[in-house]
Recover the amino acids of this structure.
């Protein structure tokens, strides 16, 4: 019986830019494995605009903290050697490593070039609001610190289809680059008319040389890191035909076990389903729909009908393709997609992703260890640890739902013979104290179950007919199970 798999997003937006992150991952790998984390999604490993850049303002795809470029050898997170060492330590501890790859844009070019553009309306990028004119754009990437090592490819304005700054006039806007066969890519999200353009110099995936270079880079990076998979950033802005080809090429190069998950940030389930169809299910997607349901539930309190929590979510419609999460670096406070799940509901939200049979759950570093910056947030390790242990040791077997009350829901995992003392009963309330009478199996009669969250000090004795009456405090979650033998 394979153990349940759990991912951790091993970074948050406000990590200190001290170059220590890869070393910290090496140190913490054994502890993560102990907490039943068996994969980590690490932040972008490639050189950004500066030593402080989170990695999403990407400069050189081939510089993993090896070359003196943009005022630094290391990235925000450390050097290439420290990165490779951290990946090996993780793998030696039974933890897979998924690298975050940013393929939508490039930033901090080495030189400007003059070329023709039209300005477009930011609210509707199909709407041209100027005559063609010349701008001086930051689009020439020559990588003087790296030269031709690993790749001789140099980027110029012909490899991009949009930019946001004219160095000649100091004007900012969204400028579509003109040229033969040059336009926004069509196979992208249709928000703002066409959402190909996101930021900086926008990579043109209709350009055959670009496609070839990026696919070759994808293979090179996986080989160089010897990583176990990729998290693909901002894919609703990238030609989905390219994403499909990139994923197929990476899988055939690294083998079918090379794991990929995409950030397709769209809360509409139909759009996510359509995208999975378009890319032939070559990767999983983060369940953005579920994240927003959890956020809504945390805002609405007892006015939210908990029986609907999984309606219109990816984990309900495509359980084998959903990576479930509560929060991430973009949804954390003061960030681009802020939609932070409130503290009072956080443990319940994690129970909903960690203790059910469907989805591949991802625990956020910021939730577990805390968030830094000017408005720090404490970590919730004490609330999350019991759920991780329960996922590891208890959350197996058939699942029966008791979603029969808008403010108090529950479910049972029946357990499996292969994992001793497995099985559990979960009850969540977003209103008053409550209880659920749930069936855990006649063979359980006489067993005494305890609340693994330590919220309730009482215990539940399973009745002769295999039912138990499982209580929960108001606005809380309780996870009832047979205690591990060493806790008796």
């Amino acid at each position: 019986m394979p153990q349940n798999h759990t991912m951790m997003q091993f970074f948050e937006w406000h990590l200190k830019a001290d170059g220590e992150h890869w070393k910290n991952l090496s140190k913490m790998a054994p502890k993560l494995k102990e907490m039943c984390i068996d994969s980590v999604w690490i932040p972008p490993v490639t050189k950004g605009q500066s030593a402080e850049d989170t990695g999403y303002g990407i400069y050189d795809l081939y510089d993993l903290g090896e070359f003196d470029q943009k005022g630094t050898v290391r990235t925000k997170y450390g050097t290439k050697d420290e990165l490779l060492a951290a990946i090996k330590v993780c793998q030696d501890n039974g933890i897979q490593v998924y690298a975050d790859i940013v393929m939508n844009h490039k930033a901090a070019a080495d030189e400007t070039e003059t070329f023709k553009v039209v300005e477009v309306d930011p609210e509707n990028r199909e709407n041209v609001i100027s005559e063609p004119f010349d701008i001086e754009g930051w689009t020439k990437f020559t990588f003087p610190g790296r030269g031709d090592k690993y790749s001789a490819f140099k980027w110029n304005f012909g490899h991009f289809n949009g930019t946001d700054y004219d160095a000649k006039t100091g004007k900012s806007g969204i400028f579509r680059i003109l040229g033969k066969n040059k336009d926004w890519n069509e196979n992208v999200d249709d928000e703002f008319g066409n959402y190909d353009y996101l930021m900086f110099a926008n990579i043109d995936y209709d350009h055959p040389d670009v496609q070839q270079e990026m696919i070759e880079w994808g293979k090179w990076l996986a080989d160089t890191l010897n990583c176990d998979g990729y998290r693909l950033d901002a894919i609703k802005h990238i030609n989905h035909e390219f994403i499909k080809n990139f994923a197929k090429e990476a899988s055939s190069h690294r083998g079918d076990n090379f794991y990929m998950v995409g950030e397709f940030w769209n809360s509409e389930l139909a759009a996510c389903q359509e995208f999975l169809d378009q890319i032939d299910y070559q990767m999983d997607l983060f369940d953005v729909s579920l994240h927003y349901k959890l956020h809504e539930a945390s805002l609405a309190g007892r006015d939210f009908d908990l029986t609907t929590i999984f309606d219109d979510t990816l984990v309900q419609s495509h359980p084998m393709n959903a990576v479930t999460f509560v929060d991430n670096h973009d949804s954390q406070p003061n960030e681009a997609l802020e939609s932070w799940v409130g503290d009072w509901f956080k443990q319940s939200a994690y129970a909903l992703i960690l203790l059910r049979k469907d989805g591949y759950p991802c625990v956020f570093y910021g939730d577990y260890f805390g968030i830094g910056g000017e408005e720090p947030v404490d970590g919730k390790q004490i609330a999350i640890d019991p759920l991780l242990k329960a996922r590891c040791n208890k959350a197996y077997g058939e699942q029966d739902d008791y979603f029969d009350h808008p403010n108090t829901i529950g479910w049972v995992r029946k357990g499996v013979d292969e994992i001793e003392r497995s099985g559990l009963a979960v009850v969540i309330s977003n209103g008053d104290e409550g209880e659920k009478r749930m069936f855990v199996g006649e063979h359980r009669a006489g067993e005494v179950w305890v609340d693994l969250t330590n919220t309730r000090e009482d215990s539940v004795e399973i009745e002769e007919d295999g039912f138990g009456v499982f209580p929960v405090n108001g606005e809380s979650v309780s996870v009832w199970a047979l205690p591990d033998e060493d806790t008796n």
